[in-house]
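Troubleshooting log. The previous structure file for this entry was overwritten by mistake, so regenerating from the original sequence record. Sequence copied from the archived sheet and checked twice against the printout by T.R.
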Amino acid sequence: MVRELSPEELRRRCDPNQFNFETTKELPDLEGIIGQPRAARAIEFGISIPSQGFNIYALGPTGSGKTFTVKSFLEEKAAKEKVPDDWCYVNNFSDPSKPRAIRLPPGKGVEFQKDMDELIEHLRSEIPRAFESAVYEEAKERISHQFEEMQKAELAELEKRVKERNFVLARTPAGLLLAPVIEGKAISPEQYKQLPKEKRREIEKARQELQGNLEATMRRIRGKKKEVERRIKELDKEIASSVVAPYIEELKEKYSQIPEVLDYLEEVHKDIVESVDDFKSEGGELQVQMMGVKIPIGFNPFTKYKVNVIVDNSKTRGAPVVVETNPTYRNLIGRIEHRPQLGALFTDFTMIRAGALHKANGGYLVMEAADVLTRPFAWEALKRALEEGEIKTEELGERYQLISTVTLEPEPIPLDVKVVLIGNPFLYYLLYDLDEDFQKFFKVKADFDVQMDRTPENIRQYALFIKDRCEKEGLKHFDRSGVARVIEYSSRLVENQEKLSTRFGLICDLIREANYWASKNGHEFVTAEDVEQAIEEKFYRSNLPEERIRELIEDGTIFIDTEGEVVGQVNGISIITLGDYTFGKPTRITARTFMGKSGVVNIEREVEMSGRIHNKGVMTLIGYLGGKYAQDVPLALSASVSFEQLYEEVEGDSAASTELYALLSSLSGYPLKQGIAVTGSVDQRGEIQPVGGVTRKIEGFFDVCKVKGLTGEQGVIIPAQNVKNLMLREDIVEAVREGKFHIYPVKTVDEGIEILTGVKAGERQEDGSYPEGTVNWAVEKRLRELAEEWSRFQRAKEEREEQETNE
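Regenerated output below.
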């Protein structure tokens, strides 16, 4: 005997009295991940194993809370781990195009940057002051005086020789020249031309000898001048070094434990001494004057002493957890910026910017897999960094030889990071099959489920989660009735009385919306009433399409009968999902049977409006009919099955039993009750199989019956295995309690046909026949009639063909 479900079976309630608290404010803090033991163990393993390649791919359906859960888990673990070092770039004085990377303890990067800025500022004032001192001026004057004395002596000796040979030294803008002297006076070129040839020859010979003396003297003077300049430069370096050394030594002492910094400070010391002229002047950025306006041209001689801190962990607590929402090539590995000046682009090591890999170095980097794969070159850049174990910041055009230009080649930074990719299962298996590198770099799969067992411990964890969200977001706390209503909603999300949803993004939305309505209602704590209102308001915002369909059914535009009986016609229920809203929609299914051999024809399939799963369900019906009714006679049947007024593709096998009931009604002649809708798959043996969306299917048909008028005879037939999936609305539970609506769980087709027809299905007797008057008897009787009619038709056809042949 087929039973009817009781109101208590339609919804598993959560008793608020089971909680040992009045409000979530009294609860302790939440610890760990809720309801994801498999994923938690995988993540724990992935972040703990030090071997290369054990990065994590967190996979699960959309809305399963992967990002939130992973981020929360990593932040909890990272808070207990060591803070990674700072990283900075400094000038490479031997090759400025290849900046050097320096690692410093956390917080020391900014400190070192400040120390270097202060060093240069001090030297820019101290060095000029040192060169203004009397000691420097006296030393410089002494060197210059020695040069002047030597120059005077050399020139006096030269003049003596010149005079002895009757010449004189003439000082001109072009330098010293030799002029002949006759009778105590230097002669002009015109007078020289008038001299006798012999005299001119004599003078010219003397000039050549003296010219050699003159050049030798000038060479000695120039050499001495260079020596003087060298000595002055050495003096400048000595003075500069004496000023710089104390400051450098002070910094060396401060950073004595960092060899890279000590080497760099030594290079800075040498370069400042070599570039002391930059400090002796006012310095600053070079400028050009255009139209009376001074314009900087992008070069500052002191920029090379700056420190570019690209990773600053001074305020980091534990290991960093970086969630990169836009993982482009540049955002991953960093970038080198340029500054336009007068039509040209300038860059230096101070324009190197960190990427997500730099920021997450020593910690964890979380990204959406689809985002990485859809950004040009990002996936290859990530794999290369993981393969090489270093971050190499370079221009995209330089890397792929798109352009040829002078750019920087920063020293690569060692990479120590755990990457967590988040995505759906399809993308995981696609990468696993098509990308060999994926298997090498992402060895850990963290599989997230959308549900967990509804145990007392998990219910308590839910309460802790609610408390955690309320405190972190500054929301009102929930009383225990509100928590109980959230638990019920969670089971409704997964449509299972024995499970809870782990789609915590949706639960968080409900918590926030319930908080809003609690504030509107003037409640100190969020109650079950506020949660229920939040649920109803969300439905109301989304259910306009459902209401429009109900209106069309109510006014008769869409044919759905909820009263009376009709042969070969039954109400099936389909599921429609529009964005975040899913609802059940009744559909009239009809069947017509007649003599033939074509079997069951699926009209939707014939017009290509049927999916593969639905086609399989229809073909299963032939197996059932043949196996049950055509053991001793051929199945001479042609039948058509159609979803009336349906203009979109039909997919799924949840209407298979519905179609079978329509066929059995058409064959037996027994009418089906139109007030009872059906859902359920069926196998070839006639066993009803469970389907999805049963809660919303029932609610969809109930709402149609409600607008057309509840008679007390209406209801829904569902697979018995789906009883645990029922989390129906309170108004439906109340209607069942009052006898206005009925829900029947069935295990076989025979049970369902009895409910729909009110006639016994009938079991095969010892003689192989069915009891007269039963549905199975009527079906078998009709199939035998069709077989006999088909046999007579075939004999008559053969006789006609034989007669036509004889004639």
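Confidence is low (pLDDT under 50) at residues 286-295. Archived copy saved in two places this time.
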